[in-house]
From TrEMBL, chains A, B:
Source domain of life: Bacteria
Occurrences of domain Pyrroline-5-carboxylate reductase catalytic N-terminal (ranges): 22-113
Keywords of the record: Oxidoreductase
InterPro entries the UniProt entry points to: NAD(P)-bd_dom_sf, NpdG, P5C_Rdtase_cat_N, STEAP_metalloreductase
Protein name listed in UniProt: NADPH-dependent F420 reductase
Pfam families xrefs: F420_oxidored (PF03807)
Record organism: Streptomyces boetiae
Coiled-coil parts of chain: none
Designated gene of the protein: npdG
Length: 230, 230
């Protein structure tokens, strides 16, 4: 975008995203509902997507703040930015089905592929490297980014919580796409959207949720992540 | 350590580690020197280890604060806690050589296996899963933990920096060992040592340095990590 002669751009100078419609696939799950609630409360137009339109409408009505509910395909088509918050188990199948509906859209993957056993959580390694890279492989016509991995669904959904004290690491291949996602994160009080690398560096960001689960268990917390010195 | 009938222990109640001798293998590198400096400045007895005793002695003298220098094997034998801060390329060979010297020691691996190309940094995946798990496999007689991955060597080494504004994620299999490392981290002003899971969850903690490199480049920063809500 910039040539080597151009002055370096201020990384905190982000676009105005207040007019964008945000869809949340898997929006009836805890993470999806929490993200939809926070973005809508911050003034964003939000559409919950679910397999069944009826369930999406019900969940949307419960959230208030003008959130609407549609089936996943209609949600994708009606949105500018589409957050993928489906369970990892349904990730590939859902995206394969929605490939055309997501064509040209800015897709934000927030899925954390994890396994659980008696020793706790551990990361799964998708064949493509990460959930985000799987999305990019399945959606060649979409602009795929990754973000919103480290948020506590409990805190997101609690109306008494005014600020979400955490940074959102945003990954992607195109600066303009990442900046839209960073700006969206920045609309939620307490959150900053921080660029944190290309999609090939998404796996460890997704997998870090396993560590946060260990932290939460030991410290009885809902841990988030802040990046210091910026 | 505790039975299920015992009251839950305060996770911030950590042992007194002020009398422990800390060795730093690869102590003449930027990361090792920085860690040695911070721990010694906080009052810890520190020994720098290097292949050549002479180089270790020189680097130790430059750090002051009573830091001593020895060759790696002597450093390991003279220390209670041994931080492994060698380059990833020499990690396996160095540990294989020092197996007997490290017997019974509390080993703290802080190595980040990374590759670099024109697109920046990306994680390498050791056959054992992580540098820390490689250390555990090569050192069956040692108590292996992982920590100190996300610290800026620039900030660590700068005497004008009073506080290191970051948490240290500590991983390991035994709570007592992790707590010693957490307590060590906590001696440095600004740092907290936070338990963050078992060694099988070390890879993503090591790999996250690739993301911090992207952050540092975009924001002209020396980024660290804080865990929120604890």
């Amino acid at each position: 975008m910039t040539t080597s002669d151009a002055p370096p751009r201020d990384p905190w100078d982000l676009p105005d995203v207040s007019g964008l419609v945000v869809g949340v696939l898997g929006g009836t799950g805890d993470q999806g509902r929490g993200l939809a609630y926070r973005l809508a409360r911050a003034g964003q137009q939000v559409i919950l997507g679910s397999r069944a339109a009826g369930r999406a409408e019900e969940a949307a009505a419960a959230l208030g703040h003008g959130v609407r509910g549609l089936d996943n395909a209609a949600c994708a088509r009606a949105s500018d930015v589409v957050i993928v918050a489906v369970p990892w188990e349904g990730h590939a199948a859902t995206l394969r089905e929605l490939r055309e509906d997501l064509d040209g859209k800015l897709v934000v993957d927030c899925v954390n592929p994890l396994g659980f056993d008696r020793k706790g959580a551990h990361p799964l390694v998708p064949e493509e490297g990460s959930a985000a890279e799987q999305a990019a492989a399945l959606l060649p016509g979409s602009r795929v980014t990754a973000a919103f991995h480290h948020l506590s669904a409990v805190l997101l959904q609690d109306p008494a919580v005014e600020k979400i004290d955490t940074d959102v690491m945003v990954l992607g291949e195109r600066r303009a796409d990442c900046e839209i996602v960073q700006a969206l994160a920045g609309r939620v009080p307490g959150m900053r959207g921080v660029y944190a690398g290309r999609l090939r560096n998404a796996h460890q960001v997704e997998a870090l949720v396993a560590n946060l689960i260990s932290v939460n268990r030991r410290y009885k917390a809902h841990a988030g992540i802040r990046l210091t010195d910026l």
